[in-house]
Amino acid sequence: MQLGYVLREAIKGHGRNVTMTIALVITSAISIGLIVSGVSVAQVTSDTKDIYLERVEVMVQLDEDISGNDTDCSSPGCKELKEELEGDPGVDSVQFRSREDSYDRFVELFKETDPLLVEETGPDALPAALHVRLHNPADTSPIDKVRDKPQVADVVDQADEVRGATENLDAVRNATFLLAAVLTVAAVFLVANMVQIAAFNRRREMSIMRMVGASRWITHAPFVLEAVFAVVLGTALAAIGTALAKKFVLDPSLANLYQSQLIAPVDSGVLWLALPLVGLAAVVFAALTAQVTLRAYVRK
Fold first, then answer.
1. Computed from CA positions of residues 277, 283, 286, 291, in that sequence, does the dihedral angle turn out positive or negative?
2. How many CB atoms lie within 10 A of CB 190?
3. What SS3 string covers 30-68?
4. Secondary structure of residue 90 in the 3-state scheme
């Protein structure tokens, strides 16, 4: 009997505050969607780092003497360095690439995308190098041991470039969470305003109910449920919008990048795990906000 009354009053409350309810539903949907998007971006960033770190190398560039005269790493300096790296347990593989090989590789990579750069770069511009694949790309101790040797001209760690590239994804994630936080604050104020307006419109009814012995829970519950229902609708809208955006916008536009393994795909499992958890947190937060508002503004 009491539960039926609470449900009926909550539904009637939405009818009395249609515009406020719609605003809360939309704001909740956007904020929940943004939080879930931030979680997805964090997952994509982590998986993309793993993809690149599996392929990155450390390029140990050799001095001019070796670059200009050694074509197969047979010189004492190059041979010593290669053997020392191969003997380190933290190194998976070491490949020597002569100056000519480096230039041929350079031409192959940039002849289509930047022909002017290829034209302006001479065969002697690139050094010979040892391309080192580390067992753990984050552990550069094997490279640190040889970094100061006289035959080493420079060390280029591709992992640094990967970290720089993924920082952009981290920035997108942080911006998404920041915007979600702003919208969450807006949703909190919407819940508080909706509850205050609804309670003001029904203040006489609430007073009469309290006079005849109705508990505070009975008089407050319809307003709390109004907020909860609106956020539940917002969660459902966020789920539908996220699913449609992934299927019809995100996946088709990033399909080529997925296939080329330039970026990790968005994991649907992460989306469907995050959505109910974030939605549940939003529902609890809305209920608490409504209850606190009632306690603060409704004394009887």
1. negative
2. 22
3. HHHHHHHHHHHHHHHHHHHHHHHHCCCCEEEEECHHHHH
4. coil
Model confidence over 156-214: pLDDT tens digits? 988 777 777 677 778 888 888 998 899 889 888 888 888 887 777 665 655 555 555 55
This prediction has a pTM of 0.72
DSSP string, 143-203: HHTTTTSTTEEEEEEHHHHHHHHHHHHHHHHHHHHHHHHHHHHHHHHHHHHHHHHHHHHTH
- Measured in whole angstroms, the distance separating CA 20 from the mean position of its chain's CA atoms is 31
Residue 123 · residue 168 · CB < 8 Å = no
Q: Enter the tokens of residue 201.
A: 């419109």
Tell whether the torsion through CA atoms of 191, 197, 203 and 204 is positive or negative: negative
Evaluate whether 266 touches 251 at the Cβ level (below 8 Å). yes
Q: What share of the chain is helix, strand, coil (3-state, %, to 5)?
A: 70, 10, 20
Query: Beta strands 58-62 and 152-157: pairing type?
Result: antiparallel
